[in-house]
């Protein structure tokens, strides 16, 4: 990334860049988002690291559903279509309240997950990827998505080693299905002209971070 322009007095700041880290649960997206934010700052940029579900009110509800703190009526499973709509609503709010104002101020934004996650996870849960894409249509694309490719069994092993907390999607068979949906979703976004860069997420953390930086520095 080139330095954000300051220019002469009265000139608006150059728009920041919006970069997304994606992958299966356990792929390392949270770690790499943090490291990318640190690298951007070290390079003289102003960077903001965020995540989805967001820290907003809808995002808080989504997190409670994912951890089964909130369920459907009488303890039933939460309706998967309703959950997909909550993800879309949180993304719209996240973009309007947090992401877009920072980009407009010349701040780079790095997000741990974005629309591609919904296409893969809600696409796998519902079998209706095109519908998921439509309800997320207003969110707008990032400047680049970096997909950390990790085999489902490796990602699940990492996730279980890192935390005792379990979310509703952390099941081996479902993660394999999500991995296949990621491939479909990546092809779909590329056909629409979006930039999706694949990185081997099974390498050591430092090697993955170097590959992430190499990809981002071309923006």
Automatic annotation (TrEMBL):
Stored InterPro entries: P-loop_NTPase (IPR027417), Thymidylate_kin-like_dom (IPR039430), Thymidylate_kin_CS (IPR018095), Thymidylate_kinase (IPR018094)
EC number assigned by the record: 2.7.4.9
Gene Ontology MF term list: ATP binding; dTMP kinase activity
Catalysed reactions listed for this entry: dTMP + ATP = dTDP + ADP
This protein's record includes keyword Endoplasmic reticulum: no
Gene Ontology BP term (one): dUDP biosynthetic process
EC class name: transferase
Every Thymidylate kinase-like domain range: 21-210
CDD domains cross-referenced by the UniProt entry: TMPK
UniProt superkingdom: Bacteria
Assigned keywords, A-Z: ATP-binding, Kinase, Nucleotide biosynthesis, Nucleotide-binding, Transferase
This protein's GO CC annotations: cytoplasm
HAMAP family xref list: Thymidylate_kinase
Function text: Phosphorylation of dTMP to form dTDP in both de novo and salvage pathways of dTTP synthesis.
Family: Belongs to the thymidylate kinase family.
The protein's name in its UniProt record: Thymidylate kinase
Organism: Anaeromyxobacter dehalogenans (strain ATCC BAA-258 / DSM 21875 / 2CP-1)
């Amino acid at each position: 990334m080139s330095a954000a322009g300051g220019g002469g007095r009265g000139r608006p700041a150059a728009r920041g860049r919006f970069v997304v880290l994606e992958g299966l649960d356990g792929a390392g997206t949270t770690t790499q988002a943090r490291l990318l934010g640190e690298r951007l700052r070290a390079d003289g940029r102003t960077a903001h690291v965020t995540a989805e579900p967001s820290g907003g009110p809808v995002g808080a509800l989504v997190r409670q559903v994912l951890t089964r703190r909130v369920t459907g009526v009488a303890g039933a499973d939460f309706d998967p279509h309703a959950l997909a709509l909550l993800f879309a609503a949180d993304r719209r709010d996240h973009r309007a309240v947090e992401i877009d104002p920072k980009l407009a101020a010349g701040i780079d934004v790095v997000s741990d997950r974005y629309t591609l996650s919904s296409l893969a996870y809600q696409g796998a849960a519902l079998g209706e990827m095109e519908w998921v894409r439509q309800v997320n249509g207003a969110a707008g694309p990032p400047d680049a998505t970096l997909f950390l490719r990790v085999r489902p069994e490796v990602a699940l092993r990492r996730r279980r080693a890192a935390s005792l907390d379990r979310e509703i999607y952390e099941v081996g068979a479902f993660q394999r299905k999500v991995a296949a949906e990621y491939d479909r979703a990546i092809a779909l976004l590329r056909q629409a002209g979006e930039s999706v860069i694949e990185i081997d997420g099974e390498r050591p953390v430092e090697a993955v971070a170097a590959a992430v930086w190499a990809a981002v520095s071309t923006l």
